[in-house]
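Slide 14.
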Amino acid sequence: MTTERRIAIAGIIHETNTYCRDQTPLSDFHIMRGAKMLQLEGTETQTGGAIGKCHELGLTPVPVYWANTQPSGTIAADAYDSMKAELLEGLSAVLPVDGVFLDLHGAGVVDGTPDLEGDLAASVRRLVGEGVPVTAAFDLHGNVTQDMADALDGVFVCHEYPHIDQHLRAREAVQLINDMMDHGFRPSVQVSSLPMLMPTTTTFHGPGKTLKDFMRALEADANTINVSFFHGFPYCDVPHVGSHLVVTSRTGAEHAKHKAERAAAKVWSMRELLRPTSLSAEEAVAQAIASDKHPVVINETSDNCGGGSPGDGTHLARAILESGVANACFGFIVDAEVAEQAHQAGVGAIIDVSLGGKHDKLHGEPLNLRVYVKALHDGRCIMQAMAKGSRINYGKLARLQPEGSDKLDIVVGSRRSQTFDTEPFLAVGIDVMQRHVVGLKSSNHFRAGFELIAGEIITADPPGLTTHHIEVFPREHVSGSLWPLEDV
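Slide 15: predicted structure.
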């Protein structure tokens, strides 16, 4: 008769842009406790993948606490203290457990605590003891430390950007817990960090794919459990900002360290291939108009809510408007006031709006327009590409047609989010396949939903909090040189 194996599941997930104006309070986090977390099973998320793998292996998932919110500013100290305390209290209440899976990000920064993940992992380790396997899955945009790795038995970062494989890495993390229990070994986790601010780089093609494939080949031997390439998150000012290679090995620290250093050397040798080409909004629109492809997708990378930007920037939308291009759409600008105004007026109304540009001047001035309200939606959608199956709420959506514009539609949303797939367009009746130019706000996650349907993708990089021009951000907490700010 086998003994039931119980695996605790918990996490605090946040990608922190320390250059954001405001701190992130507790009220911004979506929190799930206990059995409610089981609702995530079947979704292509980290916790969803972990729960599914537990059931597949005959393990009992013990959901404890899960907190997540959109990327935003530094987490308020009292917010983190509250979440951490509740997570640890919940974990303590379900002890003893046979293993712990942590759902983390890797770029969490708290006021007074620059390494959220290191602090949380160490706290969990102290609570459960050295004998309990603890593994974690991460977003690849993490700035990680050896202190964090020392508290874990396995580190599993998603391989892909867009992150279409987060659930798969979580499954591997749970598999390692099971293997450790079956075979009684203790892995070693070693970090090799690079003084390198890597721009947002897709793994679907180009140098990002080359590096992804190299890492997969590097972990092919039997002694290597995982090679994790953290691209890093350049939009934060912490001492450990950079790119990081983390190796989980069966055979001790030397093997893991050697693999991590070999992986780091490969990344460093390719750094010049990773320099981005930045187009202004006007240049990107002109290139799109000249293209004979269909549709041409322009992503406004510098106002990506997925990196902490407000989402109400107007640079690209203004460039599309002023170009006079026909048969275009933009989805979406975050402006709850205008969305509510359109919902109050109703479909068929003509209203005057001051759209976007409300957060700051960096992301552009408001668009003062007279518009026709074409369609409205409650904003509740199901993600169809990245995190497939997950519910997402964009808040009230409105489809607005500016007066005098030929077949131009602007979608307005109410809650901060980047555009992951075509759902925000479809919700208000727009078929992007029938458009010449499609504008949206995202750095790379949109590719999960648009890569296969876009005739061409062009990146616009006007001023914004997630611009590729990372030289504009001050570095007060970094002691050494960083590429590409300096030739290290």
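Speaker note: Residues 6-274 form a domain with the Rossmann fold fold (CATH 3.40.50.2300).
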